[in-house]
Amino acid sequence: xxxxxxxxxxxxxxxxxxxxxxxxxxxxxxxxxxxxxxxxxxxxxxxxxxxxxxxxxxxxxxxxxxxxxxxxxxxxxxxxxxxxxxxxxxxxxxxxxxxxxxxxxxxxxxxxxxxxxxxxxxxxxxxxxxxxxxxxxxxxxxxxxxxxxxxxxxxxxxxxxxxxxxxxxxxxxxxxxxxxxxxxxxxxxxxxxxxxxxxxxxxxxxxxxxxxxxxxxxxxxxxxxxxxxxxxxxxxxxxxxxxxxxxxxxxxxxxxxxxxxxxxxxxxxxxxxxxxxxxxxxxxxxxxxxxxxxxxxxxxxxxxxxxxxxxxxxxxxxxxxxxxxxxxxxxxxxxxxxxxxxxxxxxxxxxxxxxxxxxxxxxxxxxxxxxxxxxxxxxxxxxxxxxxxxxxxxxxxxxxxx
Length: 402
Hints:
Strand order of the largest sheet: 2-8-7-6-5-3-4
Largest sheet: 7 strands, mixed
CATH class of the largest domain: Alpha Beta
Helix content: 25-40%
Oligomer: single chain
Radius of gyration: 22 Å
CATH architecture of the largest domain: 3-Layer(aba) Sandwich
Distance between the termini: 31 Å
Number of domains: 2
Number of helices: 13
CATH superfamily of the largest domain: Type I PLP-dependent aspartate aminotransferase-like (Major domain)
Number of strands: 14
Shape: globular
Order of helices and strands: EHHEHEHEHEHEHEEHHEEHEHHEHEE
């Protein structure tokens, strides 16, 4: 059996996205910035895609700017805000569990003279509005807190954090790459100034994303050139990509209530099954959680060996973030929520979608259980006779669920 359970890394292209894109890959190939007929057709499609994305997010079309993906959107938001608010100050607040597209951009800005405050999170991966309020200073230009974490699935209290930030007069950005298309996201309701998203995370194509920039917020361009995207994002527009992103997002939002309920129920089955494995721990908030996210650590097991073992039986999964695969260091997210270095190495992330069947869910539980047991039999950190780890690594006491 083949089971794809790494949807947080990327999702398959949806049928709606494929069908919407096809004419602009083959026949309607015009450059949307030109003036003749085939180009005007492309421009109309681009405008329609912008309207569809805006409608899905509760925004205005003129607040949506297409980009090359979530990483570009995050870079533009942080670098643009730092430059635009230079007169106010050079202090930026973010969290220790952000995606590297935010963290590495913040590090870069730190080398350019900005001062970066990294807020810690609790054991569930949550940052509180009070923490943000306490971190704000007169020279704070920007606060950036992700809407939902890509590894452990925790959903942050963005509306409350944005309100605190707005009252202070700083800009607020949220990396919503993992959230858009999977939970309700309305920029007006959230009160954010900037929001990043990526098409391939909800069934759109790779290589296209968007940045929401609230009307009245002025950012300088990240890319300079021919003045595309109303002068703020130069480069010939990816019409097919934008159309595919919009089609996938429209479908995701239209079916969201049913999809969330279905996926969350199947997620609960997997969590229940894997929680029966001895010395396992669900990471992330058990309630404030993305519907399809299942993240565990297993003592005396290497996460990479789990992923490779699952691959051999037809299951696609990841250990921590797919963007960090190949690294020998444990996930910065798992370390930030307080897991010991040795335990954080034993992480497994499964992210399911509405495409995963009940039979696949059963197979997932069975195969993860079997491979954890097999990996432990070969591990020097596992005592086969006592069926327990040879050494414990919880300096502040073992969590109750282990």
